[in-house]
Amino acid sequence: MIFYYAPQTVSVASHIALEEASASYEARAINFRETEQRSEHYLKINPKGRVPALVTDRGIITETPAILAYIAQTFPQAQLAPLDDPFAFAEIQAFNNYLCATVHVAHAHKVRGGRWVDDDAAIEAMKKKVPQTMAECFALIETEMLRGPWVMGENYSICDCYLFTIARWLEGDGVAIDQYPAVADHARRMRERPAVGQVMPLHEG
Amino acid sequence: MIFYYAPQTVSVASHIALEEASASYEARAINFRETEQRSEHYLKINPKGRVPALVTDRGIITETPAILAYIAQTFPQAQLAPLDDPFAFAEIQAFNNYLCATVHVAHAHKVRGGRWVDDDAAIEAMKKKVPQTMAECFALIETEMLRGPWVMGENYSICDCYLFTIARWLEGDGVAIDQYPAVADHARRMRERPAVGQVMPLHEG
User: Fold this and answer.
1) Cα-Cα-Cα-Cα dihedral of A8, A13, A16, A20, to 10°?
2) Model-level pTM?
3) What is the ipTM of this complex?
């Protein structure tokens, strides 16, 4: 497999999951500063011009929740999701989907406002609200979603890779992670995992 | 099961899938005009204050892609997803995720701008760009994603329920569906399905 990623982006989540699964893959960085994600070469891999993308021998998979579930299903020995329990699997998907479609989207209004408006003043207005929307999302995660010690309770899962990835953005978004003790503790324990230690130098280097 | 929905919203997709699966469920409408989705009663069902939500005997599932995959997995005889093929399943998830996190989000900037800005001028600026962002999304769906006759090719799937639901929003978003002949044809064929005929009077009545 070839894993296309960009440092510091949401691709951290899939990157960690690949390591947790002991998958055999080659990681290739896409240079966002040179907008390589919009290059002719990369648009053939992912016409959406986004990362991550996972090239398999069957074809290419995009979108973080899809890649995470694929890794869990393809490497069942890593036990990254409850694969034989549709309800528990749905809970995992619901959590990942919330991160993807609500929390990541809230964050994106800080640096990707141009996706949704052309007007500079509106882009500034968007940035202004990001600390509030991110804080609301994480209040919900802290009180309603993160069961502890891992997102789904006793069993580590793909949700943990994803939560760690998005929680890293809080500080840059003007939100103190310590307001959410369970989330902050989760991030500390994630740092202790060998898979996270393996991946993060490529994203924080 | 109890299916909480609101007419005309994204809950159409899960509603159709429940019918396709011949599931036994009770549909309960949430009144958005009276902001029932923010009522104390409903926030106990879904603390995110959104629809749809599916109450099962194990607990509650939220988020459209999670509900759709759950229906496909729980009613395998309906053949709404390739359940034994992780790659094909990932393709389904990637498609649904794009609708959820990119296309639905683009659309939401028309009527839910207050989620991301407080400023009235910025909300107006958001509305102005919706026809462009929705058109870009559907150009990609038309040329890169919709295989035909169904989204994933020969086999009807949960992706078709979802695409039909979101494509219905195009006209209101100022985009002519006929620019996308494959999407328009897909919508016509969806209308002929008994499950769609069953559900739509509750959403268009």
Assistant:
1) 180
2) 0.98
3) 0.97
